[in-house]
Design brief:
2 domains, single chain, alpha+beta, 7 helices, Helicase, Ruva Protein, domain 3, N-terminal domain of MutM-like DNA repair proteins, DNA-binding, 5-stranded antiparallel beta sheet, about 25% helix
DNA sequence: CCACTCCTGCGT
DNA sequence: ACGCAGGAGTGG
């Protein structure tokens, strides 16, 4: 579900609802998340401490306490919600943190359990989460960042699609926004990254920046069940060029959008606007 | 580079 | 019943 624009929208809506509130004792479902639900003791140092704010890198959301905080990865189907403590529980609610003062709580809901919530103890710990990740796509408007990514991109033997999905190269793009960026840059998803010219790479990274910024401005893409921290849907699904539009006419040339399986995932593209060479 | 895995739910 | 789903990791 969530790529950088969805996670950023969750963060923007979550922040004012939790900032300054104290985390209560967590309740959890005991079902394993991606890395097992941590034992209660690992969360205990956060209990009673106020939340200072939130941050994000790529698809990873951080909730900051006085020292340390929470690392939240939404996986495919994770939701981070703030709701009244007496509001009905959605199926697959795995974590609940009462927030004081007030009657609300922070809830983590994740049917597929590909996501993860765990504590980080200090900035050094948090840095280990970010270290393996490339720059956030919102920073691609800085020439030095774009230049560094461009060089790395043109060094890999993989397809453009696979390269852009690699969080070590750029952190935050997923299947939707990669397909969209490649369409905007008029580049084939199947082309080898290595074969890109410098101007093509520049064009592509500008497109990546654009789709992410537009996605944030439109509060994310709700195809099935993505919602922000207040339960509101996004808007960007009405502005997609190719993703989930198999058989529909390309907005540029009218050719039917195609879907092909690439590395076990769907790639949507316009075969006319995005020539392989 | 691909295939396959973790899970549940939904549309055909 | 089957294929597919916005992620990420592993192993061949």
């Amino acid at each position: 579900m969530p790529e950088a624009p969805e996670v950023e929208t969750v963060r923007l809506t979550l922040d004012p609802l939790i900032r300054g509130k104290a985390l209560g004792t967590p309740w959890w479902s005991f079902l394993p998340l991606r890395n097992r639900v941590p034992d209660e003791a690992s969360f205990r140092f956060l209990v009673g401490r106020p939340i200072r704010g939130t941050s994000r890198h790529g698809k990873v959301l951080f909730v900051h306490s006085e020292t340390g905080g929470l690392v939240v990865r939404l996986g495919m189907s994770g939701r981070c919600l703030v709701q009244a403590q007496d509001a009905p529980l959605a199926p697959h609610t795995h974590l609940r943190w009462p927030l004081a003062p007030g009657e609300t709580e922070l809830r983590y809901v994740d049917p597929r359990r590909f996501g993860d919530v765990r504590p980080f103890v200090d900035e050094e710990d948090r840095a280990t989460v970010i270290a393996p990740l490339g720059p956030d796509p919102t920073t691609l408007d800085q020439p030095a960042v774009a230049q560094a990514v461009s060089l790395a991109l043109r060094r890999t033997r993989r397809s453009l699609k696979a390269a852009l999905l690699d969080q070590a190269l750029i952190a935050g793009l997923g299947n939707i926004y990669v397909c969209e960026a490649l369409f905007i840059a008029r580049l084939s998803p199947f082309r080898a990254a290595k074969g890109l010219t410098a101007p093509e790479a520049t064009r592509l990274l500008a497109a990546c920046h654009q789709v992410i910024q537009d996605g944030i401005a439109r509060r994310g893409t709700t195809l099935n069940d993505y919602v922000d921290a207040e339960g509101r849907q996004g808007d960007n699904q009405h502005h997609l060029f190719v993703f989930a539009r198999e058989g529909d006419p390309c907005h540029t040339c009218g050719t039917a959008v195609r879907r092909k399986t690439q590395a076990n995932r769907s790639t949507y593209y316009c075969a006319r606007c995005q020539r392989a060479r």
